[in-house]
């Protein structure tokens, strides 16, 4: 009887004491130091036309280890691209600042596979004054594929699943005015300091 009561209390309070596992970090020396200060990467600044390629929206949340949204975090991305896009003027990096619900968003072109076996991916760095920075990678693949990609091959199966970017609307035919939507949440190590 006591065990049932304890189990019931644990079930009822589990949402009150949520815990989020910090995101796997993958650091790189190849990360550019100064990404552009825009989250609109799918077209050149001031241009009405989009770059050739599949447009996507990448959105997600930045949370602390207690699953609390982090406002004011700087999210920077660097993505794999094909030479043709770079020749058009595509800049494969950008910056977004999280809102009061910890959300960030980028409008960009779907990363591509490179000829040397590098998977379609984005390198992401998150910084905030109250936390140690996080640098990781998210992969735009559907499942556990075989690859010589250095980042991918260094991961366990559970880490690979954690770092796959989730497509929110890939399971249906899109209307002409819709774009692919992806989601990738990042958990920072530590707890947000509340101010009174």
UniProtKB/TrEMBL annotation:
Keyword check for Hydrolase: yes
Name of the featured protein: Hydrolase
This protein's record includes keyword Hydrolase: yes
SUPFAM superfamilies: Aromatic compound dioxygenase
Lineage: Bacteria, Pseudomonadati, Pseudomonadota, Alphaproteobacteria, Rickettsiales
UniProt keywords, alphabetically: Hydrolase
Matches recorded under InterPro entries: Intradiol_dOase_core, Intradiol_RC_Dioxygenase
Coiled-coil residue spans: none
GO molecular function, one term: hydrolase activity
């Amino acid at each position: 009887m006591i065990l049932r009561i304890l189990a019931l209390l644990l079930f009822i309070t589990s949402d009150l004491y949520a815990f989020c596992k910090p995101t796997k970090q993958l650091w790189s020396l190849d990360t550019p130091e100064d990404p552009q200060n825009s989250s609109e990467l799918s077209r050149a600044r001031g241009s009405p036309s989009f770059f050739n390629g599949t447009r996507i929206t990448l959105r997600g949340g930045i949370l602390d280890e207690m699953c609390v949204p982090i406002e004011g975090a700087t999210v920077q991305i660097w993505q794999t691209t094909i030479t043709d896009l770079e020749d058009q003027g595509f800049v494969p990096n950008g910056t977004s600042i999280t809102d009061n619900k910890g959300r960030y968003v980028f409008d960009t072109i779907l990363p591509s596979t490179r000829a040397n076996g590098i998977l379609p991916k984005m390198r992401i760095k998150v910084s905030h004054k109250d936390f140690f920075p996080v640098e990781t990678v998210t992969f735009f693949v559907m499942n556990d594929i075989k690859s010589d990609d250095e980042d991918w091959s260094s991961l366990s199966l559970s880490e690979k699943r954690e770092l796959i970017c989730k497509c929110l609307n890939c399971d249906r035919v899109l209307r002409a005015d819709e774009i692919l939507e992806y989601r990738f949440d990042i958990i920072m190590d530590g707890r947000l300091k509340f101010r009174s």
